[in-house]
C-alpha cells in the first residue's frame, strides 16, 4: 500500500526501468515507482490504497539476471535493479491472462453496464487482445439483485478481491469474502447469503466503485451507464493509516 | 431450563475451545473438532466460532470451503474416499469405484438416502505402493479389489469395521532406509551436548554436508537455519512440513511411522541452531491415523527430557513440539500457504519476499522443513558432514528416499544415493521396459524411455522423491487428464493462469482424446502452458502444465494419431 512518507531514515535506491534511470524510496514497490514516473503497467487486482493481493498476475515484469517473472505490485525495489516492463514476451503473457479472464466467465461487453468504463476491457484494448483463442467456459453464474441499491453479477467477476479488501480494510465491515477453491472460487456476502439480507453491509458502495468490471454495479443502470469513481480511495486509505 | 439445539451446540463449541484455545490460529482444529462432534460444520457453528474468535463469519466460511475435509453439509456415517492418483487408477481404482457405486447405489460425491455412506474421490492418500487404496473415515484400506470392497461395505453395514486393524499403518514395503535404521537413538543431540556444539556449529555442519530441502524445492538446509538464527524476533518457530500431498509420495508417512524420533530430533536440532522454542508438526489430514503414534513418542521424549525445559541438562535449551492437523489442501505443502493455514486463513501462498525465515508464522522468523530433511539432518549431525558428503555425486550430496509405485514388481520406499540413472532405478524395482517414468511426482518431470540414462540428482532430475512407472500399455493422454484434474482440484484460485488455464489444458486433452484438436489449437495450448508456468505465484502453478508440455514433446505421435470419435 502506498503510505505517506513519514518513516524517517528510508533509504533511496537507484534503478533502471525500461532503460530510464530512476530513483525511488527503498520501501516502494515496482508498480508504485512506475505509476509515479508515468510508466504504464497493466494491473487488475492492485489498487492504490488497498493491501496487495498479487493474484491477477497482469503486472508481471522482467528483472535482469532473474529467470522467472516478478509481479510489480508485490516486489519491492532494490539498489541496481534493472527492470523491463513491456517486452514482447510480457505482452504475450498479458494477452494470455486477459484472454483467460474473458473466457472464465460470461464477459459480453456490448450488453454490459460497464461497457466503455471497464478496466478489463480497457486493458484488453491496450494489450492488443483482438480475440479470445480459448473457448468460453459458458458456465452460468447467479446474479444477486437482492440489495436495494447495488447488484452483484458473478458472470462478470474476475476474482480480483478488490471488493473484499476495500470492505475489510477501509470500511471495516468485512461483508464480502471469497469461498471455495480453484475454479470454484466465488465472492460471497456474509455466509453466502443474498446481499439484501446482510446485516453487516453498511451500503457504503465502496465495493461497487472499486470493482474493475461490471460485476458490482448500482441498481438501475443499463448498458454502458455504470461509471465508477475511485478517487476517494487513496485519500481515505491515507487518513485511515494516519489514525 | 429447556435447552434448544443451538444452545447445546454453543455449549459444546465453548467446551471444545477450552481445550483447543481461542486463538485465530486454532480455527482449523476447532472446525475439525466441531465436525467430529456433529458430522459437519453448520452455518450457525461458523457464526458462533467467528464471534468467539473475533473474526468475520464469512472469513470462517471462506476457510471452511477452502479445505477438502471440512463438510458444510451433513455427510454419511461412513465417508468413503477413494484415492484417485495415477498409481491407483493403473491398479484398478476405476473397477473398485464401479463396485462401490453398485453396492451403495450412489454416484461419486453422493450420500446414500439412509445417511450411512458418502462416496467421494480424493487426491493421493500416500498408499501408492499398495494401490488402489481408500479411506473409510480415518482408516486406510489398501490393495483393494472389487470383492474386497464389497466385504468392507458389508462390514460397515454391520458396523464391525471399528474392530478392523488399520492396514498399512507403517511401512511394510521394500523400504531399505539403511541410514535411518542404523541411527543410534538421539545420537545427534547427545553429540551436541557432549561436544558443546554452538548453534552456528550445527547449521555449519549442515551447510558443509550440502543437505538440500527434501520437499522438492532444494533450498540448502544449513543456509535456511543460519538465516533464521540471524533474523530478529522474540519468538521463533520450527515447522515440520508433513503435508505430503504430492501424488505418488509416501516416504514421509513411512518415516513418521517408523522413524518419528529422528524427525523430532531434527526439529530439536533446528530449534537449537535457530533459537526457537516452539515446534509444530503440520500433519496432513489423510495421516490422522498416525497422530496417536506421534503423540506417544512426543510424550516419551518429554519424559526423557529430550523436549521441554533445559533439554539434556543444557541450561536455556527449551523446546516443545505440538501437532497441528491440516484439513485437505495440497497447496498447503507450499510453505507460505502452510503458514497461512496455520494462522487460520485460507491456504493461499503469500507474496515473497519476505520469506518465512524473516517473517513466517505470526510474523515471526520460521523455519519450514520437510519430514525427510529433518530426519536426515539428525543423521548428519550424529555422524558428521564428512560421512554424508562421501555419498552421492559432486553436486548432489548424500542419499534420498524415493517412493516408487506404478508398473513395477517391487514398489516401496528406497533409500538411494543421488546419482543413479533412471534405468538403474528401474532395474532395482523391477520395472524394466517401461514406457515412461514420472520423476518427482506430478509437479516433476515425465521421462520417456529414450532418456532413461538421465541422472537423478540436482544436476539433472533433482526433484522430490516420487517415482511413478508407466508400462508400455499406458496411454499418456489418460495420464495427462489425471494430472490436470488433480491440479484443477487443488489450485487455490488466486492466480489467473493456474485457476483458469489448467481447465483449458484439460479441455484440450479431452479434445485430443476425441481426435478433434487441431494442430493450431494445440500450439496455442502449449503457449498457454508456458504462460501458466512463468506467471504463477507458487510452485504448484509453475509446475502444473509440465505434463502437457511433456506429452507434446515426447509422445506427439501418440497423442495426435487418434482416430476421430463421433460426437
Automatic annotation (TrEMBL), chain A:
InterPro entries: 2Fe-2S_ferredoxin-like_sf, 2Fe-2S_ferredoxin-type, 4Fe4S_Fe-S-bd, 4Fe4S_Fe_S_CS, NAD-red_Hydgase_HoxS_gsu, NADH_UbQ_OxRdtase_75kDa_su_CS, NADH_UbQ_OxRdtase_ferredoxin, NADH_UbQ_OxRdtase_Gsu_4Fe4S-bd
Organism domain of life: Bacteria
Location (main, coarse): membrane
Segments forming domain 2Fe-2S ferredoxin-type: 11-89
Pfam families on file: Fer2_4 (PF13510), Fer4_Nqo3 (PF22117), NADH-G_4Fe-4S_3 (PF10588)
Residue ranges of every copy of the 4Fe-4S ferredoxin-type domain listed in the record: 148-178, 192-221
Cofactor needs: [4Fe-4S] cluster; [2Fe-2S] cluster
Cell location: Membrane
GO CC terms: membrane
CDD domains documented for this protein: fer2
Keyword Transmembrane: no
Keywords: 2Fe-2S, 4Fe-4S, Homeobox, Iron, Iron-sulfur, Membrane, Metal-binding, NAD, Translocase
Alphabetized Gene3D superfamilies for the sequence: 3.10.20.740, 3.30.70.20
Entry GO MF terms: 2 iron, 2 sulfur cluster binding; 4 iron, 4 sulfur cluster binding; DNA binding; metal ion binding; NADH dehydrogenase (ubiquinone) activity; oxidoreductase activity
Domain 4Fe-4S His(Cys)3-ligated-type: 89-128
GO biological process, any: ATP synthesis coupled electron transport
Family designation: Belongs to the complex I 75 kDa subunit family.
Quaternary structure and partners: Composed of 13 different subunits. Subunits NuoCD, E, F, and G constitute the peripheral sector of the complex.
NCBIfam families referenced in this protein's UniProt entry, alphabetically: PRK07569.1
Listed name of the protein: NADH-quinone oxidoreductase subunit G
From TrEMBL, chain B:
Annotated keywords: 4Fe-4S, Iron, Iron-sulfur, Metal-binding
InterPro entries with a match to the protein in the record: NADH-UbQ_OxRdtase_51kDa_CS, Nuo51_FMN-bd, Nuo51_FMN-bd_sf, NuoE_dom, NuoE_N, Nuop51_4Fe4S-bd, Nuop51_4Fe4S-bd_sf, Thioredoxin-like_sf
Gene Ontology molecular function terms on file: 4 iron, 4 sulfur cluster binding; FMN binding; metal ion binding; NADH dehydrogenase (ubiquinone) activity
A family per Pfam: Complex1_51K
Domain NADH-ubiquinone oxidoreductase 51kDa subunit iron-sulphur binding per the UniProt entry, residue ranges: 477-522
Cofactor or coenzyme needed: FMN; [4Fe-4S] cluster
Top-level division of the source organism's lineage: Bacteria
PANTHER family: NADH-QUINONE OXIDOREDUCTASE SUBUNIT F
Family classification: Belongs to the complex I 51 kDa subunit family.
Protein name in UniProt: NADH-quinone oxidoreductase subunit F
Species of origin: Thiobaca trueperi
